[in-house]
Amino acid sequence: MNALSRRKFLKITGAAAGTAAAGCAALRAAGAAGTGPAPVEKGIRQVPTFCDICFWKCGVIATVRDGALWKVEGNPLDPLSGGRLCPRGTGGIGAHSDPDRLKSPLLRKRNRGEEQWVEVTWDEAFEFIAQKMQEIKGRYGPEAVALFSHGIGGNFLKHMIKAYGSQNIAAPSFAQCRGPRDVGFRLTFGEDVSSPERTDIRNARCLVLLGSHLGENMHNSQVQEFADAVGNGATIIVADPRFSIAAGKATYYLPVKPGTDLALLLSWMHVLITESLYDRQYVGQYGFGFEQFAASLASNTPEWAYTETGIEPELIRRTAREMAAHKPATLVHPGRHVTWYGDDAQRSRAIALLNALLGSWGRKGGFYTPVSMDLPPYPYPEYPVSQRGKADNPNHKYPFAHESITTGIRHATLTSEPYPVKGWWVYATNLLHALPNEQETIAAIQNLDLLVVVDVIPSEIAGWADVVLPESVYLERHDDLNAEWFREPFIALRQPVVEPPHEQKPNWWIAKRMAEHLGLGAYFPWTDIEEYFRYRLAAGGYDYGKLKKDGILLGPAQPIYFDEGVEPEFPTPSGKIEFVSLQLQEAGFDPVPVYHRPSPGPPGYYRLLYGRAPVHSFSRTHSNRILSDMMSENEIWVHTRTASRHELTNGQYVRLKNQDGVVSNRIRVKVTERIRPECVYMVHGFGHNSRMLTHAFGKGASDAQLITRYTTDPLMGGTAMNVNFVTFAPAEA
To answer: Can you give the pLDDT at residue 2?
Structure first.
């Protein structure tokens, strides 16, 4: 089977995938040729590692019983998990046993998107990719190859792409998720809120959540701290168009009209200032431009906000006073997925300014100063210097974008501006579900000379690839060392617990072998990943043996609050908290956030809102049998009056049609009074149309397919996606 003409042609279906799984399992059971069956491991074995079901990277203890994965539990030494896992984490073994997972390298047989493949060896896949990449470099330059990556697993692929000569590396987590938040806080305090967020929820006496679905958006340590805060009697204030899980724990629930959060924030700040409830000493010591800022809020009264938000003026005043009563231990949560309406960086800046008025930055119960352990880098050769720079943000169109913009790379691929992008590597992110307007993404893909997808499951983006490379799941591989910024300093190790069942390989091996095929082996001088680990850990004075044994190395406690000895520093132009931003003013933007009323949808349509479920991560986990058993499809939340108007009943299946005529898969209706009548809500990530995902195919509806419109944040290039509207069509449509 060395020639393409003699290889088995695969049209990937459930039957083909099942046959391949059975065949590989049988071969592995037989052991090496001529030696008989491999010995079966007996007894209990435990291995510490850290999770990859989401980006939180919680420490786990994986248990193997008689050679098979049995369970994963939280590592009690790990500050992120505290010995406890979320529902997704405990279901991690389902990723290993998923029969739909990718099994061997695949080369596209026919047209992109037809999901027809030829199985090839790893060397054949690398040779094909290397030839294409060298052709692209020779014709367009190395910058014409870009990498889209999500999570720590992409570190070595980033290194390979930089060694090749390209700086075009982007993650959807910036322009499609947290970017506006980070920019808003940077413009105010000079620093962002990190990831995991530097939120001191456990010590907050008042916690304010604006569309932050703690308990549904299952970030482990935050949810544990939220439970602690509730148990300690903290005041919880939730502003959300939907009565979420977090709202069920709230002291005050404000059913704010979608798109009007900034009006609510401005009115809260108006009350704090006009009633002299803000932290006057803190603002006086650390603030810049406060008088101009205060004057700009004069008209943002609760009465004015009521006409925009629908929240009664007295409730606005009462909740503002409640925040002030607990300052500085009042935390207005910055959120994470904050790309909503197009003014998102300014709305996030308003959240930062409200926290500044309450004196919470650097204070217990507000935002602590994260710490980490020093881990020296590996001494690689210098990367080639690009003469053209990055393609994502030409002429700094979005002046405050401090990370690469995924949709900017997509735009360059579509238009060849500022120069052509002709090759994509995509690692661990399903771009057709992550980026708005999937037709733009597909059009960009059709302009490529090469699309390589590295993933553990055959996601929708894999169906459009030229080459699909199967990665081993996190319980089967090493990844880069994780020296996290958190309230306690630590280093965590991800290490293999069991062998991959087929031809899957770890990302570090893929990157190293790919570099060698490109003639870039000097950038991967270590023999294997453990040699790389030993060098970095020895350079930092750490014990690799102890790290392997415990999974965690803990550093000494360090101060994390101003009153513990942390020096208050604000890396802004003024060196202070900027209530007025001269940076924004000089760039032609409002120096203080200004509210603009959101555009309404067409008559008979409802604003589409979306969020997370505690048992799923994005669109990555729906083929995991353990997690899909807990939630196999999503629902569309519809207010009772809306349901009556459209003659919908609870449990009925419908299809959703958006303002541009795109019609979804069918989805079950959830009739409820727990949502405002002008909007609907669904959990993100369902409605898969990749036929290679035999278990998840067609279950529920995809919000991503309905997000055909987006508004780009002018400050940093984030794509606001809560600007789409849907109505209802018969399930048979």
So the answer is: 33
379 in a structural domain: no
Domain that holds residue 233: 199-369+566-586
Number of domains composing the chain: 2
Residue 645: CATH number of its domain:
2.40.40.20
Q: Which residues contact 248 (CB under 8 A, 6 or more apart)?
A: none
Q: Provide long-range contacts, Cβ within 8 A and 24+ apart, for 440-444.
A: 440/410, 440/414, 441/410, 442/113, 443/414, 444/410, 444/413, 444/414
Domain match, 616 and 726 both? yes
Asked whether 256 and 267 are in contact (CB, 8 A), the reply is no
Residue with tokens 């570099």: 515
- Both 230 and 355 in one domain: the answer is yes
Measured between alpha carbons, how far is 10 from 17 in angstroms, rounded to an integer? 9
- How far apart, in whole angstroms, are the C-alpha atoms of residue 433 and residue 693? 14
pLDDT at 7: 32
Q: Edge-to-edge strand order for the sheet containing 68-74?
A: 44-50, 59-65, 68-74
Extract the runs of DSSP E, i.e. beta strands, from 338-470.
423-427, 450-455, 467-470
What 3-state class would DSSP assign to 252? Answer: strand
> Is the residue at 270 inside a domain?
yes
| Residues contacting 5, CB < 8 A, separation 6+ | none
- Give yes or no: residues 254 and 364 share one domain: yes
Q: Give the C-alpha distances (Å, rounded to integers) separating 127 from 110, 263, 513, 667.
A: 19, 56, 10, 44
Residues 234 and 344 in one domain: yes
Residues 412, 398: Cα–Cα separation, whole Å: 15
Residue 283: predicted pLDDT: 98
For residue 38, what pLDDT is reported? 64
Q: What is the pTM of this model?
A: 0.94
Mean pLDDT for each consecutive 10-residue tract of the chain (733 residues)?
Answer: 31 32 36 54 96 94 97 97 94 96 96 94 98 98 98 97 98 98 98 96 98 92 96 98 97 98 98 98 98 98 98 98 98 97 98 98 98 97 95 98 98 98 98 98 98 97 97 98 96 98 98 98 98 98 98 97 98 98 98 96 97 92 95 98 98 98 98 98 97 95 98 98 98 84
Q: Which two tokens stand for residue 521?
A: 């082996």
Strand pairing partners for 492? 482, 552
Same domain flag for 571 and 624: no
Q: Is 65 exposed, middle or buried (0-12, 13-18, 19+ CB in 10 A)?
A: middle
- Of 458, 475, 432, give the one whose Cα is nearest residue 48: 475
- One domain, residues 576 and 673: no
Q: Which amino acid is at 675?
A: I
- Give the 3-state secondary structure of residue 154: helix
Task: Report pLDDT for 257.
Answer: 98
E-strand spans in 602-704? Answer: 606-611, 635-639, 653-658, 663-672, 679-683
- Judgement on whether residues 272 and 220 belong to the same structural domain of the protein: yes
Question: Does residue 572 sit in the same domain as residue 690?
Answer: no
For Cα atoms 508, 21, 11, give the angle at the middle one, nearest 5 degrees: 95
In a domain, 68, yes or no: no
* Residue 35 pLDDT: 46
In this structure, is residue 157 part of a structural domain?
no
3 state SS of 716? coil
Per-residue CA distances from 495 to 137, 492, 529 (Å): 35, 10, 10
Distance CA 293, CA 423 (A): 47
Q: Which two tokens stand for residue 512?
A: 């190293």
Alpha carbon distance 204, 321 (integer Å): 16
- Residue from 58, 217, 109 nearest 683 by CA: 217
